[in-house]
Amino acid sequence: MTALLILFGVLAGVGVLLTVTLLRRGGSRADTVDGILQEQQALRQAKADRVSFGLGAHNSLPTTSDTYVRRNGRP
User: Fold this and answer.
1) Helical (H) or strand (E) element with 2
2) What is the mean pLDDT of the chain?
3) How far is residue 16's CA from residue 18's CA, in Å, rounded to a whole number?
4) pLDDT (0 to 100) of residue 11
5) Over the Cα atoms of the chain, what is R_g?
6) Would you kindly state where each structural domain of the chain is located, as residue ranges?
C-alpha cells in the first residue's frame, strides 16, 4: 500500500512539474527576426538536400544535381 501511495505521489509531482513548466512558457512568440530567418534558411536547405540525396535511387550521383552545383560551386 505504501508503494502505491509513493507511486501516485511521484506521478502527481511530475504532473505538477509539467503544468508549472508549461504555464511559465506562456503562449506568446519570442522569436527574433534572426531566428525566423535562420529557420527559413534551414527549411530551404532541407528541401534542397531532400532533392539532392534522393537522386541515388534514380541512378544519378547526388553531386551531379543542379542544387549541389548551385549551392557549393564546382570544385
Assistant:
1) helix 2-25
2) 76
3) 5
4) 97
5) 24
6) 32-75
- Write the DSSP string, 11-74: HHHHHHHHHHHHHHH-SS----HHHHHHHHHHHHHHHHHHHHHGGGGGT--GGGSHHHHHHH--
Q: What is the mean pLDDT of residues 18-45?
A: 81
Question: Of all residues in the chain, what percent carry a pLDDT higher than 70?
Answer: 60
Q: Which residue has the higher pLDDT, 5 or 40?
A: 5
Confidence band, pLDDT 50/70/90 cuts, at residue 28: low
Q: Which residue has the cell 501511495?
A: 5
The answer to whether 66 and 55 have CB atoms below 8 angstroms apart is no
d(CA 1, CA 10): 14
Cα torsion for 55, 61, 63, 67, to the nearest 10°? -30
Q: How far apart are CA 69 and CA 62, in angstroms?
A: 10
